[in-house]
Amino acid sequence: MSRRIRLAAFTGIAALIGSLAAACGSSSSTASAAAFDAATCAGGTLQVLDQATEDTGLDPAELYTSGGGAIPRLLFRTLTTRDSVAGDNGRTVVPDLATDTGESSDNATVWTYHLKSGLKYANGQPITTADIKYGIERSFSSQLAGSPPYLRDWLIGGSAYQGPYGSNPDLASIATPDTNTIVFHLRKSEGDFPYLAAETQFAPVPKASDTGKNYNAAPVSSGPYTIKTFNKGKNLVLTRNTYWSKTTDTQRLACPDTIDISLGLSSTVIDQRLAASVGQDADAITTDTDVDAATLARSSAQPALKSRLTSGNFPDTTYLAFNTKKAPFDNQSVREAFSYAVDRTALVNAQGGSQLATALTTFTPPSIGAAYHPYDYFPAGATGDPAKAKQLLAQAGYPNGLTVQLAYDNNDPQDAAALQQAYAKAGITLKLDPIDDSNYQSVVTNTTTEPALSLFSWGADWPSGAPFLTPIFDGRDIVQGGGNFNLAQYDDKAVEAQIDQINQITDYTKAQQAWGDLDAQIGKLALTVPLYTANDVVLHGTAVKNTYVDQWRGWYDISSVSVK
Fold first, then answer.
1. The Cα angle at residue 422 between residues 421 and 423, in degrees rounded to 5
2. What is the pTM of this model?
3. Main-chain phi, psi angles of 165, to 5 degrees
4. How far is Cα of residue 324 from the mean position of the Cα atoms in its chain?
5. Using CA atoms, how far apart are residues 550 and 83, in angstroms rounded to an integer?
């Protein structure tokens, strides 16, 4: 199963669950939301064809949707959101329910937001900061598992808080001095807080409407659409929220009158229906399925089909992870040998070619923006440098090569096979260890069972170096037992101090430059072998307009799409 399915339609399983993935470069598109004539786009029914079954529902506390997700962004507004424009500017965080992206104080440990006036739910009730506080608090409940871990880590008292349903319902580090003001008190500096405030956990939830586990079937909408019918695993139909107003929401065009989402379709069926574009399928897009290789190849000879392809990227890196606590990868010369011997061309070809993947020599991909600093400390060329690798192995005490086991998700055999063939040229024998997809994360991210060498992927929860580098290289994020993503188990107090310093920077550009510097610094240690980043290519029906791929998730911005 590729990253494109894992980051599915509206749950968007996200970056912190191990083998996630996605991309490089700038997105191309037919238009941007800012340039589109919103006055003439209203009407019609947009069809969405998805593989996701969405059988867990649509509770904002349980969703993990970077940048607001696809479908959730239609139902839920948050304090901030991503800028609804194509290209690199789409990485920018902008106000949503709030009047600005947040006022920071005390070295970015206190963040204050004020709500816009006139905000209402689909039931006509006003949205208050108490609702936002309650929505966040319920995401801490063990009954509603699935949300990202940042709030639990960042908020004072968050690590011990159990949600609003127990004997201590209040999280004091979130204050609401009035109905329009909310203040967050953090235990450490976090300059990226405005990006976190775009996650669905910041969607308001009226306490009187909370039905606990059952809320996922009929959540109260604060966005431009509300749920008309929802048959989990089959179909979801959205209609307009009549209380939503464009005067308070500049980021969602909300053009179609109705959005009809078909669930549980196969990727082959989705690709065939979008390519044929017959009947209602002319009004269709997908939010979780890339075009297949055959259709992509056919498009080169069919201009009409090619014109309906849109490309874009979500920041991710697929890489080889070394457990530096285990031999032979406690030896940097061995790690460097693996870096020199890799054949990135073979890996890109295994993904379907350069249209679908781009080789990487850095941990941070180009699609992350200013945090990308190009470097190649162990130049392997296009197909590897086995001679250099053999030299380093000999220096490390392995003149006759070595044999190691490579753990990989059994859904990704093509990458493992490409690596096995490349490393054989350098005298490295890879014994392949396929692990079932359902168990792969739990095995690899458990410090007691983590293998010496594994194939892994990482994607950013928002376009910044912070969620890309911190979980992978901050020693304080090493989790004994399960849920550890610092697979190198790298622990350097000086690096941790650098991370803390960068987190105090609230100027986005300056912060990203600093993250890029840190990536380039850590890269010299060969703690990973970056392999490639995936490129997203998606198809839409002939009657769909204003399609572009956003730079937070690598999918169509459904809130801007319209039908002719």
1. 95
2. 0.89
3. -90, -10
4. 27
5. 9
